[in-house]
Amino acid sequence: MMKLTKLITCLLLPISPLLAQQRTGRVFEDQNSNNQFEQNEKQLANIVVSDGYGVVKTDKTGTYSLPHNPNARFLSVTIPSGYKATKTHYIPLRGEVKNLDFALTKDTVQQADFLRFIQITDTETPLYGPWIDNVRNYAQQQKASLIMHTGDICYEPGMLFHAKQVNSELMARPTYYTVGNHDLVKGEYGEKLFEDLFGPTYYSFDAGPAHFVVTPMPNGDYKPSYTADQIIAWLKKDLATMDRSKPLIFINHDFFAGPDFILKGEKEQIDLMQFNLKAWFYGHWHNNFVFKQKGVYVVCSNAPNKGGIDNSAAQFVVVDIDKQGIKDIKPIYTNLRDHIQLVHPTADQQINMLETLPIVVSAYDSERKIQKVAVEISAHETGKRLANVQLSPSGDWLWQAKVPFGKQKGQYDALITIHYENGEQALKRQSFNLAGHAESTMKLQWSAAVNGNIWKTSPLIVGDKLFVATMDDGIGTNHSIIALDKRTGKTLWSLPTINSIKHKLRYSDGILLATDVETNVYAIDANTGKILWTKNPSNPSLPTFVSGPALDSGIYYAGLGKRMSAIDIHTGKVLWEGVDPSGGEATPAELSVVDQTLLAGYNWNALCAYDIQTGKLLWKRQEDGLRFRSGGVTAKDGYLYTTGLNGIFKLNLKTGEIAQKSIKTDDFKVMASPKIIEDLLVMPTSTNGIKAYDPQTLEEKWHFSTGEALVYTSPYSSPDQHKLVGTVESSVTEAKGKLFFGASDGYFYALNKQGKLLSKFNLGAPIFSEITVDGDFIYIADFAGNVSCFKF
User: Fold this and answer.
1) Any signal peptide, and if so, which residues (predicted)?
2) Residue 23 — left, alpha, or beta (φ > 0 → left; ψ -120 to 50 → alpha)?
3) Residues whose CB is less than 8 angstroms from the CB of residue 792 and which lie 6 or more positions away in sequence, other chains included
4) Which of 111, 470, 754, 760 is exposed most, by the fewest CB atoms within 10 A?
5) CA trace torsion 269, 275, 279, 283 (10° rounding)
6) What are phi and psi of 192, to 5 degrees?
7) Exposed (0-12), middle (13-18) or buried (19+): which is 608, by Cβ within 10 Å?
8) What residues form DSSP beta bridges with 688?
9) Pick from 528, 650, 636: which is nearest to 592 by CA?
10) Distance of alpha carbon 373 from alpha carbon 85, whole angstroms
11) Three-state SS for 79?
12) Based on C-alpha coordinates, what's the Rg of the chain?
């Protein structure tokens, strides 16, 4: 009896508070959105709740209970499809927290079998810019269910700003964040400020038909408290609860899983392919690069508020998901509203022989989807309507049609009407003159839309053919190499490519050569478009290849660092491959061969010279801003002329020694190379148009300003500073004593050698590639994917 009494007494003693304590709460449908549970509100069963260590589901009463973990700093709920958080998806556990209930409300925007979301990344700013309005308004107009920021909000100022201005309440859609390397800042531990402002660094949620997992950058400017093993251990528990028929969408600041999509820590690892992985979205590199591997889309985007490190266009990404996975990926270029330009006919247009009037309109809006474009043509003097036509889309900027018109000389008005899907309209009236002969020094002969964007791929003329290549920074259906008849613009053949061709094509001995961003090399019969041979890397990898390949004496040079190779164009045989240095980022600078020396640049690394026979590194220079490689080099008399950041340099070709330099206030982070024309060194800039310098003294001789960029590409160039961004990415082409170039403001310019304007034409889209001159004809390829032929 005494023993039994002692046993009962022991059982009645208090249990250790730490062992007894459970974190308990409920998940409920907050019907009146007041963030408080009321008796008539539905409690939700089978909803996942986690403290970052344990993962449990609510029972049939909507209640959950997690053992107390002293290391846990948050509770988070995996919001189920069709819902959104009334307030937040997480509850901080710092201090004494009494209410551990999660309040969810129905999300009427979501659909069970379809989801649209927006990715933004690497905004790195404490400034309010038009991109914020673009993203918010696009989300509302196009019914995007959520906004995902994939990191680098950037240091204390940027993080504080985003928490106040780019949040779920002000963006009117659930807005989520992940940790970038620049979001790990000084404090108690690296992610402390992020947690204070945005909540847990890793979590999951369901939306539409998909399961999303968000994890943080493994390392950064300051050491985080989390470890890879900790995150993977949690991830295993989270994914064990998911419906594996759902697509898994992985969100992180960088892509580091490797070709097998296996995440590894010191002790833990997990194969994401076992959980129906369909996409990995990230940022970090400040470039636009989409590739597909093992059926998984790997999607990197540049920031929406500035040009990319590799001169990628500022954008945000719109993603459509269905039950099978990724349905569409579409970049949206920022800071454009009601952008409308009549491209063809031009102000002074010669009548063609076919008695039809080609109509081409460039139209773009960063927030609203264009439903249709109509053009009404009337006589200028009488106002009599002569034609009313609806245009067909070609790519994401261009709309076109052909109108039976006859040889009717005179002045006409074109009234362009843009119909947006939301019912809004925009109007623009432009005039043009039809003439039987040229009434200006330059006239448009033809224009042809090639149904894809054109970045740095300038028209290549060979015989009676014009070759050009397109890029697609979205789902990848519009990248190809195209041959046109140079006299009419008619398509002769088109060859789809594995990924985007972003830089120059090369030609020799009947062979057309190209390299895409994955470093796939194509050798093509220029007459037929038939592939002769290809060279493919084992797996796509970063950095992308956006440089201009070089061709010399039948040897083709493409790739950078360990992916650089020299290839015999007739056999496809690799002569050498893989060189130093490695590292750095992609650069749009051209590779070039000068006197048995191959010159190549690595952004944020160095300008390098190689022996073309062996690939041996001869020298490299990275001081005084030379490591910032956006543009190429120009050779003359044993010297190289180039730019870096804000300096102009003259280097000894053989040694790489700096013979002369001049540091300017100008920003030279553009894709162009210097051009030496007699006593001028002409160099485009990021913000101030074109400048000409004395090649002997490097002192400025004249300056020509261009307009504000339509699309921002030069690294870190942005409208947020409220200063002119007059970017010119195109190197200057000299012909018949004139200087020709295209600019980011959409204009094609002709100057004399004193820098005075002779003529300009508005093509309605940025021009990044060089102008090609062939006899009396000028060929221009713009970013919208329109190729134009002028006669001068």
Assistant:
1) 1-20
2) beta
3) 441, 442, 736, 738, 750, 776, 777, 778
4) 754
5) -30
6) -60, -50
7) buried
8) 726
9) 636
10) 40
11) coil
12) 29
SS (H, E, C) 440-479: CCCEEEEEEECCCECCCCCCEEECCEEEEECECCCCCCCC
**139 membership: H or E segment, kind and range:** helix 130-141
Distances (CA, A) of 680 to 120, 428, 758: 42, 40, 18
- Which helix (H) or strand (E) segment holds residue 240: the answer is helix 228-240
Q: Which of 788, 718, 708 is nearest to 744 (CA)?
A: 708
- Tokens (6 digits) for 327: 């349905």
Instruction: Please report, for residues 216, 420, 627, 747, the alpha-carbon distance to residue 337 in angstroms, rounded to integers and kept in the order given.
Output: 35, 12, 36, 18
Query: 25 pairs with which residues across the strands?
Result: 64
Look at residue 672 in the predicted model and tell me its pLDDT: 97
Q: Which of 82, 81, 51 is nearest to 64 (CA)?
A: 51
Decide if pLDDT at 15 tops 60.
Answer: no
Taking only the tens place, the pLDDT of each residue in 675-689 is 999 999 999 999 999
Pairing verdict, β 425-435 and 443-449: unpaired
**Pairing state between β 647-652 and 658-663:** antiparallel
Three-class secondary structure assignment of 763-777? CCCCCCCCCEEECCE
Q: Indicate the average pLDDT of the chain.
A: 94
| Cβ neighbours for 11, distance < 8 A, ≥ 6 positions apart | none
Q: How many residues does the chain have?
A: 792
Share of the chain above pLDDT 90, in %: 88
CA distance 248 to 416: 44
248-293 confidence digits (pLDDT tens):
999 999 998 889 999 999 999 999 999 999 999 999 999 999 999 9
Q: Which of 184, 189, 173, 115 is nearest to 151 (CA)?
A: 184
Q: Is 9 exposed, middle or buried (0-12, 13-18, 19+ CB in 10 A)?
A: exposed
543 or 427, which is more confident?
A: 427
**Long-range Cβ contact pairs of 292-298 (< 8 A, separation 24 or more):** 292/476, 293/259, 293/539, 293/540, 294/259, 294/260, 294/261, 295/325, 296/261, 297/325, 297/326, 297/329, 297/475, 298/255, 298/540
User: Can you say how many angstroms the Cα of residue 597 is from the centroid of all Cα atoms in its chain?
Assistant: 33
Model confidence at 646: pLDDT above 70: yes
pLDDT at 399 (0 to 100): 97
Which backbone phi and psi does 381 adopt, to 5 degrees? -75, -45
Provide mean pLDDT across the span 405-426.
90
Indicate whether 3 pLDDT > 50: no
Confidence of residue 19 (pLDDT cuts 50, 70, 90): very low
- Check residue 222 and report its DSSP letter: S
Cα distance between the two ends of the chain: 116
Q: Coil, helix or strand for 98? A: coil
Give how far Cα 741 sits from Cα of 53, 174, 479, 640, 771, Å. Answer: 58, 44, 24, 22, 6
Q: pLDDT band for position 407 (50/70/90)?
A: low
Are 241 and 203 in contact by the 8 Å Cβ rule? The answer is no
Determine the pLDDT at residue 627.
Answer: 95
Residue type (1 letter), 238: D
Q: Per residue in 333-354, pLDDT tens?
A: 999 999 999 998 887 666 554 5
Omega of the bond leading into 766 within 30 degrees of 0 (cis): no
Measured CA distances, 414 to 337, 361, 653 (Å): 20, 11, 54
Residue 696, number of CB atoms within 10 A of its CB: 10
Compute the distance between CA of residue 129 and CA of residue 335 in angstroms, rounded to an integer.
9
The DSSP H or E segment spanning 571 is none
